[in-house]
Amino acid sequence: MNRPAFLLLVLLLVGVGTARPGESAPTAGESVKVMIAYSDPLCAPDALEQGLADLGYDVYVVPSQTSQPSKEEMLEHAAVIVASSAGFHRPTTLGDDLADYVDDGGFVIIHNLCFTTNNLPQLLGRVMTQSDMRTLQRGMEVMSLNGATAAGWDETHPITQGLGGNLTTIRRYTRSTAYPEATVLATLAGEYDFVALSGNRRVVAINTMATEHVPAPHARWAQLVHQAIQFGLGSSGIAEPDRPPTAGSRLTLAAVAVRGRVLNYTLGLPEPASVRLSLWDRQGRMLDAWQVAAAGGITRWTRSLPPLSAGVYFVSTEPAGPGRAATAKFALLND
């Protein structure tokens, strides 16, 4: 598969703008590349792949029972979806690579069978255990999105809104006695559907999936994954993206991976301001600078980049009052 150059950007920015002429925000799913890493000898994730493609995503499927994606491949994608019912080729290495991917700004969605099948975890490594990530580590750090009640989804949360209320209760995570270094579900019960969110809001666990094994509504599953991806693209979790900024608030937001040499960034500010941004290389050389007319709220922006070679770059905002300066790092990869 031909994979053009992609940007993966983690923005820790305070500022905002409404789109000016020539700068537009992408529509949901447009030009966003996602990876599905799966291990199931009987069932490829065709339904999910097609459902996400129908929503406009560029989907790359990686069979991972006898091999696995590299960290470089992960970094070309805005999100990685991990699913297994047969065990991964190198589960600890994969989990460590996913943790590095999250540290670099990636967003991960993990299907429940990665946590446990017959009380044996399918996915190991730091994505399951690293304490500073607070990722699916202890039950108290896993946030319920459906209120842990039998009433169904929390319709107000951006991941689960609009999906109906016929799902049941959240399940708790516990340590596995067989593999104490991994976090697994206490009980795997197919009739229980839930969505859980890691403490850093960069990993989502979903215990519902449409496959040939589980005849669930395919479009609904794809919509749930789509909303989780959009949540991941909109916020790294320091602030809820569905809550408007207030005076003095500080937001930490993530941008998306996009096609070509286009910087896609998100800004949030509680009141109008003029925000100046600049692009730097690792040697401290400024490569570009621009200004946006900011209005209160949270919006997405795009900026065409100058010719750049593969490497690590930084975007900075100039101070505009207390707590208004920030720096972001992104990696540009070429084929």
Provide structural commentary.
Residues 1-19 form the signal peptide. Keywords: Signal. This is ThuA-like domain-containing protein. Helix 1 (46-54) crosses helix 5. Strand 7 (173-175) and strand 8 (183-185) form a beta hairpin. The protein has 2 domains: 6-26 and 258-333, Sandwich (Immunoglobulin-like), CATH 2.60.40; 33-234, Rossmann fold (3-Layer(aba) Sandwich), CATH 3.40.50. It has 335 residues and is of the alpha/beta class. The longest helix is centred in the last third of the chain and has 17 residues, at 218-234. It contains 5 helices and 16 strands.
Features:
Class_I_gatase-like, alpha/beta, 16 strands, disordered N terminus, ThuA-like domain-containing protein, five-stranded antiparallel sheet, 2 domains, Rossmann fold, signal, single chain, seven-stranded mixed sheet, 335 residues, Immunoglobulin-like
